[in-house]
Prior knowledge:
With about 80 residues, this protein is an all-alpha fold. It is built from three helices and no strands.
Amino acid sequence: xxxxxxxxxxxxxxxxxxxxxxxxxxxxxxxxxxxxxxxxxxxxxxxxxxxxxxxxxxxxxxxxxxxxxxxxxxxx
Length: 76
């Protein structure tokens, strides 16, 4: 399942806070926001509770996205 590009209009203060939190988590703002929203969607029952977020997908053929997200799968 590939990632989809999207845009949001967001309060400058929220963006600044997201940048700070991502930096403290040693991750990109994009990855930080994706992980926070993924966990929220799981908590709200919108995503299956056993689902895991996509891992690194850059440089992988699209048919290997599912394998990349399997936590037991070794690096391809």
